[in-house]
## 1
Amino acid sequence: MNVRKLRLQKGWSQEQLAELTGLSIRTISRIERGQTPSLESRNALASVFDVDASQWNIEDSDMESTANQHTETSREATQVDLEEQQAIECVREVKAFYTCVLTYCVIIPFLFVINWMTSPGYIWAWWPAIGWGVGLLLQGLNAFECFNVFGPGWEKRQVEKRLGRKL
């Protein structure tokens, strides 16, 4: 089972899942990246997600044994996983952008206050505001894929070019 998918469906963070299962955040992260969980970890995750632990083990072993038999099905599953990973990455980029905007909105006014208190004759706070603002603008254009010059399509074409085949 895909732990990340189940966790996101519940709306939990890795920290919340770690607290509910009694596992470490590092363990949760490793399992989400594909490391095989121990029996204790599987039991803890199965109880939190309300899934039968023995069924979980069977599904994982079945998935491994049938991977070679059903290459087309595994390709479709890989494509879905790839699309989910791309969507998650896109959401992370947008989240990072909003975090930077919030930080900008807190720090820049603070700099103007410092500027006003120390040297009101020269407004030097414009320089960091403009510099950081340009960087923020570029990050926003990238996060929302406004100018998608080096986006997923470009990446896919480059990988296919290097492999010499279609993905």
Note: Confidence is low (pLDDT under 50) at residues 58-70.
## 2
Amino acid sequence: MPGLCYGRSDLALAGDAASVAASLRSLLPKNVPVFSSPLTRCCLLAEALHPAPQFDARLLELDFGDWEMRPWAGIDRTELDRWAADPHMFTPPSGESVGAMRSRVADFLGNLVGQSLGSAILVTHAGVMKLCAAELLGLAPAKWLSMQFEFGTVSLIDDAKGTHELIWHNRTASRSTS
């Protein structure tokens, strides 16, 4: 929804879940657990990828509070400037700061690592993926804030064949970019 501020709002999936899942399946590891945000736009894709995905509220997108579903142009410029100056600490009215979101994402990742799964698939939102990359790759905010994650892509965070040097890639069925 171009021009609208949304994060936690439960919107429909932008495409057909079955066709998106079919286009991604060849890029994904086989027989690994799928964890998903419980929002519809992730839930449908997760269910199309796996017979029993696990839904976890820690994978929800940022809660923009009173800004949700409002045009960005209609949000007070002073408030937007305060958020842009310190997104980690600034909390939109009735919403959540990026710092609070990062804490819940880090908690999820800590639990996931503790399960020693080897591999897992996360079906989640761009903001959550940025924070996963920040946590797993140890990136500075300037780097992870500028990362792009698009709908219908696979983003691989890999430990470079056991070297514990994590690498991040965005992949689609037709191309691969780092």
Note: Residues 173-178 have pLDDT under 50 and may be disordered.
## 3
Amino acid sequence: MVPVTLANALTIFRILLIPVFMVFLLEFELVPYSAAVAAGIFVAAAVTDTLDGYFARTRNAVTVLGQFLDPLADKLLISAALISLVSLGRISAWLAMVIIAREFSVSGLRLVAAAEHVVIPASRLGKVKTFSQIVAVVALILPEFGFIFGRPLSWYLIYLAALLTVVSGVNYFLNARKYLEIER
């Protein structure tokens, strides 16, 4: 039996928040404040990502289950948000797919590395990318705060997040050569 640590419980909680977030975003779209509730749930889920890592490290409670579930929960949360936003017409499908494809490509790279008993650590650029995705998703969920050069602020934020997503993905694959024996 796998022991459930506080970190793993937070990760599982994050996964369970995803359908709740989607219901508020998609099903209650016309209910007053549903977007704010959806944004709040999304932010709460995103915060659990920081907390579960903190608790796992500080309590020396890193588990195989956590190492598997944590990145999966992150990918599910971002993917669910982007797919929902495509459904609402707030983001282009191709842009969402670029971000989702990078997320799962890097996860695949990490699985290949894990099969070789190699851990590819999270990069600072990857953390900046994650933060930019969270900010962009929240900006897309909530009503527009203003325009810059005729475009909504959320437009710039999602394109910045996409750019950082692609750059960090390329960075992971280039740096993977340090950790893996990759034929050239």
Note: Residues 6-179 form a domain with the Four Helix Bundle (Hemerythrin (Met), subunit A) fold (CATH 1.20.120.1760).
